[in-house]
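Before the break, one more example. Copy the sequence into your notebook; we will annotate it together after we see the structure.
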Amino acid sequence: AVVPKSPARLKIPPLQVFSNGDVIARDAWDGATVLAMHGGGEPYNVLYHQHADMNSFILAHRNERLLVDPGHSCYRGLVIANDRSTPCHNTCTFTDPSDAGAHNLRNQTSGRFRDVVDGVPSAAVERGGRRLIAERVDEITAIGSECADVYGEPLTRFSRYWIMAGKHAIFVVDHVAAEKPLIVSWHWLLNNRDGRMRLKIVPPDRIVFRRGDVGLKLFHAGSNLNETSLSRMRHAYVHDAYHPKPNQLGEGAPDTGRIITFQQKNAVSESLTIHAIAVDSYGCVAGHHLRRDGEWVGLEAPSRGPGEAGEQYRVRLESSAGALDTSPRSGPTIYIEHVGERRAYRVRASGEPPYRLERA
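Here is what the structure looks like once it is written out:
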């Protein structure tokens, strides 16, 4: 019999990039943490099957799904519209306060389908996003995607960067710009598929979420918490598997997911915002703390032994304005640092992508 070979033995990198816009990152093939995102890729070749999920991602730790995609239910059910919608994914929506209806701008898929004329499909279509970076150096992974086009005017930029540092720390950096002031909402879909979640909401800036024997702590790390609020928690749907008939075993019921939303209190034309996410075992996740040092935003892990300092990674954004949550006129430079070992890295998000992750 043929002896199977592991991806590590075949020297397949733990960061994998796909033409449809998906990127999957692992801390190691035999590691603990998997992050998978959906963003810009090559032109879309299939006819349908689009969801409004650009710049969304999922996150698993030790085989436990934490931040999830909702999946989808029967195509002829009422819930399918929610399954496909932007606010039901781990991404952003934008509210125009000057609109009398406070209209949420969502990813628009209409007009991006391939047409079929006389049985012949038209040319592949652009989805409205593009990959900015997907690179790994040492234990640091940097992924970036831009997708403002799928929202349309007045949004001109929605660039999201994921910085995965080792197996416990993830930083999500969002650069948003628009032709007029908008209110940004950040949505986080938590997995409660089997009712096993334990959720603690700690206003104004964090949530602690546990299921199985692992946990997640998420911090909204904007520079001014008075400008952002934990606006709401909603009971949502998470589906295990599609079935052409409704009410089957794979279809999620209400509260199989919960959506936590952070929302800006005031509309702005441009902003840079960091969310810091720690993942660990059920008990240890409580020992992860957000650390600020000037413009640095860090995650400090608990000590793993007597006399040992907890591992700490931190990031800093540098823009033409020189600070967080101001009005940068170009993409930021993202600095990443391992505090204990004084190793530093950077991503310069300027000029034409793809950008590079390099040692600083």
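The two ends are 48 Å apart (CA to CA). The helical segments are 80-84. Try to locate both features in your own notes.
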